[in-house]
Design brief:
The chain is of the alpha+beta class and 643 residues long. The chain is 37% helix and 21% strand. The strands form 5 sheets. Strands 1, 2, 3, 4, 5, 6, 7, 8 and 9 form a 9-stranded mixed beta sheet that branches.
Length: 643
């Protein structure tokens, strides 16, 4: 490198970011994204401080309010953030907590034995990323107040009156110059707060949306804690024992709470938390639980009359079929793997959880032999289904139906072999499939035509899924296996687009396919590879011009503009309502639904796994009453329904 280039790099190039400036400069480092998820993260960070107070026994009531103009208010009845002057810093403790990273009470284990936050950056980051923020502390019969503008105090913390209340109130307005949106989603926030209420037995959490003319309010309080959580998850399922099995204990300052309950379904539902953080990738606590459950049930099988029904031991998948479990541990010094805190790494926690589960399951089953007999019977049936599924896979592989050398005949593949560049359209019907094949870009778009409605996988086991003639082509085309064998690294297309008619049958097909992906290829959805095509509802032709409308509002706008331009109303025979993709010729299908430069597609997200589980169970499960109730509640919200 030349000297001239070196001379350009001087002390003047070094930026010193003071206070919270670096948070505003690189917000993604602290909240992950400046999209709506990051916006919601601000609320969670403030609520987490209140939850920490609840975990220490000082708070039992939290209120979250969505005020007008994108303002959020979080109130609790905890001890209140200290307001006395910090001897080392010369400012109030409140100002330190609100304006300094790595300042907080969570590093002092006398103040907080366990907490969700590890780095003490929560509320100060919220303050930094807010247009303005206000802290009101009710403490020692007095009210204290301090306001901040983009993280900077407008004045020192000061006394602002007397009160008989206690606790902290944080109000803030997210900075619109940083976030892509500052409009909060009530349902997303509500679902997370419900989860937190389950994990903190007896804590009341209320969320109120005051942006509406009639405020919307959800209040959560669960005296059963994780037991109530499991009952909620199994609400629309048929359980095989009425009361959840509850396990709790504390060893070496690690507190463990587990609730488990089996239902007659085929899917495993398991949520694990560490200090109320959802450990989506599991960790040592989950490994300990799974190991203990498998060991305990195999020991009971070995010593029971049911042993002769099975020639091999039960696998982990066998004993977890139909299991709903919530595992919550509190660890004084948690070590998480990765920035997302998604996986617990503390090795000692595995042994603690394993020992508690082994001991307490044994005690429970000794008292309730009827429950263990039912669970063992279900596990044996799962083992037999697993063996049958293995045999079905072997038979299918022998026919080369599940690898790239034996792609299904209904698949019109693309020429590009780079999965990141390729799209798979799953199209129902030979007519629509024919138009899609002729209209596509053959280089990167593959078409898989299906005929007729497929299996509802919510009501069947894996061996039926693997051998189903409607699902086999999908499994083979995607090329990554199915169920426990699914490997996201092997998918042949990074966009899998469900393209169905805009009618009742099309909606049913989309729901069936989404159920299949959710149950047997979950990673496809979690990694953002599943999309819904949005074909137009209307074709409007007048004065030798053609327009397409994707909803009624767009149709009305086009008609209004056409009438204004022509000086007369457009005749009704110029409007065509599409009922099926097969009504479009290849050019129309390409222009409206398949061309990446023009089309509308919706990416399927899994924002709330708990709610997704309930919705799929409600819509596709065996129990009819919840489905009828869901339809009655949502019937008036449906538009463009052809009957």
């Amino acid at each position: 490198m030349s000297d001239s280039n070196n001379s350009e790099y001087t002390a003047g190039n070094i930026q010193v970011l003071k206070g919270l400036e670096h948070v505003r400069k690189r917000p993604g480092m602290y909240i992950g994204t400046t999209g709506i998820d990051g916006l919601h993260h601000l609320v969670y960070e403030v609520v987490d401080n209140s939850i920490d107070e609840a975990m220490q026994g000082f708070c039992d009531d939290i209120l979250v309010v969505l005020e007008g103009n994108d303002v959020v208010r979080v109130e609790d009845n905890g001890r209140g953030i200290p307001v006395d002057i910090h001897s080392g810093e010369g400012v109030s403790a409140l100002e330190l907590v609100m304006t300094r990273l790595n300042a907080g009470g969570k590093f002092d284990k006398n103040s907080y034995k366990v907490s969700g936050g590890l780095h003490g950056v929560g509320v100060s980051v919220v303050n930094a990323l807010s247009e303005w923020c206000e802290a009101i502390v009710n403490r020692d019969d007095k009210i204290y107040n301090q306001r901040y503008k983009i993280g900077i105090p407008e004045s020192p913390a000061h006394e602002a009156g007397a009160t008989d209340r206690r606790g902290t109130i944080i109000r803030f307005k997210a900075d619109a110059s940083i976030f892509e949106t500052t409009t909060y989603n009530f349902d997303v926030l509500s679902n997370r707060l419900r989860e937190l209420a389950f994990l903190n037995k007896g804590l009341k959490i209320t969320i109120r949306d005051e942006r509406l003319s009639t405020p919307k309010v959800h209040e959560f309080k669960f005296e059963g804690g994780v037991k109530s959580f499991v009952e909620y998850l199994n609400e629309n399922k048929t359980v095989i024992h009425n009361e959840p099995i509850f396990i709790e204990g504390e060893r070496d300052d690690v507190q463990v709470e587990i609730a488990i309950q089996y239902n007659d379904g085929y899917n495993e539902i398991m949520y694990s938390f560490v200090n109320r953080i959802n450990t989506r990738e599991g960790g040592t606590h989950l490994v300990g639980f799974k190991s203990a459950l498998t060991h305990t049930l195999n020991e009971y099988l070995k010593n029971s009359k049911q042993a002769k029904k099975l020639d091999e031991t039960l696998s982990g998948d066998d004993v977890r079929e139909g299991l709903t479990a919530v595992l919550s541990v509190k660890v004084p010094n948690p070590q998480f793997e990765g920035q997302t805190k998604g996986k617990l790494g503390n090795s000692e926690v595995k042994g603690i959880v394993e020992a508690l589960v082994n001991e307490q399951l044994e005690l429970f089953f000794d008292r309730r032999p009827d429950v263990i007999a039912n669970i063992i019977e279900k596990s044996i049936l799962a083992a037999k289904a697993r063996i049958a599924a293995r045999q079905a896979r072997d038979a299918t592989r022998r026919k080369n139906a599940m690898d790239s050398a034996g792609l299904p005949g209904k698949l019109a593949d693309c020429s590009d072999k780079d999965p990141a560049a390729c799209e798979l359209f799953i199209v129902e019907g030979d007519s629509a499939g024919g138009s899609a094949k002729m209209g596509r870009n053959r280089r990167f778009q593959a078409i898989l035509s299906l005929f007729g409605k497929m299996l509802n996988v919510e009501k069947t086991r894996i061996e039926k899924v693997i051998t189903n003639e409607k699902l086999q082509p999908i499994i083979a085309s995607i090329g990554a296996g199915c169920g426990g064998e699914f490997n996201i690294a092997k998918i042949r297309y990074h966009k899998i687009i469900i393209m169905a008619d805009a009618d009742v049958d099309g909606s049913h097909i989309r729901t069936l396919l989404l159920t299949f992906f959710y149950r047997y290829m979950t990673d496809l959805i979690e990694h953002g590879h599943v999309y819904l095509a949005m074909p137009p509802l209307y074709k409007i032709a007048y004065e030798k011009k053609t327009f397409y409308a994707y909803d009624d509002a767009e149709k009305d706008r086009i008609l209004s503009e056409a009438a204004a331009a022509a000086g007369k109303e457009v005749k009704s025979d110029a409007i065509q309502r599409y009922k099926g993709l097969g009504e479009m010729n290849p050019d129309q299908l390409w222009d409206t639904t398949m061309d990446p430069n023009k089309r509308n597609i919706i990416q399927v997200h899994l924002d709330d796994a708990v709610e997704a589980e309930r919705i799929f169970t409600t819509l596709m499960g065996e129990v009819v009453a919840p489905r009828r109730e869901f339809i009655e509640e949502n019937a008036l919200l449906v538009a463009n329904l052809d009957v």
